[in-house]
Amino acid sequence: MLNKELKVLVIEDNPEISLNIADYFEQYRAIMDFADNGELGLELAITQNYDCIILDIMLPKLDGLSVCKQLRQRAERYTPIIMMTARDSLADKREGFGLGADDYLTKPFDLEELWLRCNALAKRYLQPIQSNLNVGPLQLDYQRKQVTREGHPLKLQPIPLQILSILMQAHPTVVSRSELCDKIWGDDHTDSDALRSHLYQLRKMTDKPFANPLIKTIHGIGFCLDIPSEFSE
């Protein structure tokens, strides 16, 4: 758990769901703000500082996907987002992750699980990262949360960036699927579709614009970086 009180924004138009979240989070002394439509939620998210945002997809005035997209484009400070929706298809999750969501929880959900995921995300983004990392054609600037390949900037969302960081730190070792999940979500594993979607986004930005793919799947084992020979020492 975090030592500080968690400040959470809930963007949800169902008052019963918002009340249930508020009642459960109150026992942990969380500071809560609520918005019952997307426009108000986006305004609060941009003008206030939160440790985590719980965002429903189906919202009046501005839907959750649009809120997520605009928040990532306009906000100066990064705030982790948990998408909350009754839609459970891989395509929906892929769209949400592609727009900048960090996690995805399907209704009906367990309140304890929601709280644990909020804590895990908030803790992850409060941890300072200090050094840079270079592996083959990849350069990762932890302070700026920026990565380049052969000098070309790669626009990665936070979870794909974290996956790439794990693979870079482990290179040339193979990282198993379960180890990736442990390092990203801790004990609060999300479903397998989430990791699959984030890997898809990572490959889309890291590999597809270039001649040689770097993210390699070792079937039945895990994932590693496949560094071209010209970048080997």
SSE topology:
Blueprint: E1 7-11, H1 15-26, E2 31-35, H2 38-47, E3 52-56, H3 64-74, E4 81-85, H4 90-98, E5 103-106, H5 111-126, E6 132-135, E7 138-141, E8 146-149, E9 152-154, H6 158-170, E10 175-176, H7 177-185, H8 192-206, E11 215-218, E12 222-225
Parallel strand pairs: 1-2, 1-3, 3-4, 4-5
Antiparallel strand pairs: 6-7, 7-8, 8-9, 10-12, 11-12
Helix pairs in contact: 2-3, 4-8, 6-8
GO cellular component, one term: cytosol
Keywords: DNA-binding, Phosphoprotein, Transcription, Transcription regulation, Two-component regulatory system
Pfam families: Response_reg, Trans_reg_C
Keywords:
single chain; 233 residues; alpha/beta; Rossmann fold; Arc Repressor Mutant, subunit A; 5-stranded parallel β-sheet; 4-stranded antiparallel β-sheet; 12 strands; 21% strand; elongated; transcription
Notes on the structure:
- This protein has helices at residues 15-26, 38-47, 64-74, 90-98, 111-126, 158-170, 177-185, 192-206; strands at 7-11, 31-35, 52-56, 81-85, 103-106, 132-135, 138-141, 146-149, 152-154, 175-176, 215-218, 222-225.
- Helices cover 41% and strands 21% of the residues.
- It starts with 6 loop residues before the first strand and ends in an 8-residue tail after the last strand.
- It has two domains: 7-126, Rossmann fold (3-Layer(aba) Sandwich), CATH 3.40.50; 132-231, Arc Repressor Mutant, subunit A (Orthogonal Bundle), CATH 1.10.10.
- A five-stranded parallel β-sheet has the order 2-1-3-4-5, sandwiched between helices. A four-stranded antiparallel β-sheet has the order 6-7-8-9, with helices on one face.
- Residues 130-227 form the OmpR/PhoB-type domain.
- The modification 4-aspartylphosphate is found at residue 56.
- Residues 7-122 form the Response regulatory domain.
- Keywords: DNA-binding, Phosphoprotein, Transcription, Transcription regulation, Two-component regulatory system.
